[in-house]
Specification:
By secondary structure, this protein is α/β, with parallel strands linked by helices. The protein has a single domain, classed as Aldolase class I (TIM Barrel). It is built from five helices and seven strands. A seven-stranded parallel beta sheet has the order 1-2-3-4-5-6-7. Helix 2 links the parallel strand 2 and strand 3. Helix 2 crosses helix 3.
Length: about 160
């Protein structure tokens, strides 16, 4: 089954970089709302960048272990239609948020990863990322592609992250 390939570039912090990404073909632009990220951006600053993006471009808010109320608050300030959730976000929280946003549930291919676990997120797109003991995404490492391939049958839309050369 052929699917459309989409490009997401994450960690943007300024309008010039965001516009360059869009001009180069990015479909999704990610903004990190995880304060421990070196690419953290305040939601109000992200809003200024997001408002200037073409409407066809998805602005994605990246969150780690955030509760739904915090996600909604930041999403409203930033003007988001899409959220990417890392960490220990439950399937129930994802389903709840999927009623308001396009939800991307990020999972790492650590030792506990089982491809069939992605089925717990039927209302979400699933992003498969490489495991790193200290980083929450953005590792730059290639994920376990065989695990990602096996997860495809359980997801509606699969996103591969990091380590592309």
């Amino acid at each position: 089954m052929a699917t459309e390939t989409q490009i997401k570039i994450c960690g943007l912090t300024n309008a010039n970089d965001a516009h360059a990404c869009v001009e180069l073909g990015a479909d999704m632009i990610g903004f990190n709302f995880y304060q421990k990220s070196p690419r953290y951006i305040e939601p109000a600053i992200a809003r200024g960048i997001i408002d200037a993006l073409p409407t066809r471009t998805y602005a994605v808010g990246v969150f780690v272990d955030a509760d739904p109320a915090e996600i909604r608050k930041h999403a409203k300030i930033a003007g988001l239609r899409c959220v990417q959730l890392h960490g220990h976000t439950t399937p129930q929280s994802c389903s709840e948020l999927a009623q308001e946003f396009r939800v991307i549930r990020a999972l790492s291919t650590d030792a506990q990863f089982e491809p069939e676990h992605t089925a717990a997120f039927p209302d979400c797109d699933v992003l498969i990322d490489a495991y790193h003991p200290e980083l929450r995404g953005g590792t730059g490492q290639t994920c376990d592609w065989s695990a990602a391939r096996a997860a495809m049958q359980y997801t509606r839309f699969l996103i591969l992250s990091g380590g592309f050369t």
